[in-house]
Design the sequence.
């Protein structure tokens, strides 16, 4: 996975931050979808690599619960975790025991379950009147 992510970093469109990010989601059936961060001058209209990969899987017809793991790498040489916007999308679509793996460019990584990384999720249950 490390080599795939390293290669994918080259596709990032990050002319403003110069901070390429790459992500690969793996589905329960083994199919992989790639994503890179995409920026523009207003920053907020861009997209994170994790969400690009997730949206690609959804566009291909995959659904909530079909996601096995998500892998992410940042170009800084350090381990970078998904932002909170991406974590919200992960909470929406991945099971609590799905794996989130964050890599450094040298191959080091940390691995968490969704539940470990997002212990207090805001999900559909929070939208219900009690």
Sequence:
């Amino acid at each position: 996975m490390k080599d795939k992510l390293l290669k994918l970093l080259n596709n990032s469109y990050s002319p403003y931050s110069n901070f390429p990010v790459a992500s690969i989601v793996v589905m329960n059936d083994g199919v992989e979808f790639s994503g890179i961060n995409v920026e523009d001058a207003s920053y907020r209209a861009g997209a994170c690599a994790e969400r690009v990969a997730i949206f690609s899987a959804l566009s291909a017809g995959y659904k909530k619960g079909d996601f096995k793991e998500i892998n992410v790498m940042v170009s800084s040489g350090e381990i970078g975790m998904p932002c909170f916007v991406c974590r919200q999308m992960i909470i929406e679509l991945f099971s609590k025991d799905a794996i989130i793996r964050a890599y450094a460019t040298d191959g080091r990584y940390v691995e968490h379950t969704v539940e470990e990384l997002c212990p207090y999720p805001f999900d559909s249950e929070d939208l219900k009147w009690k």
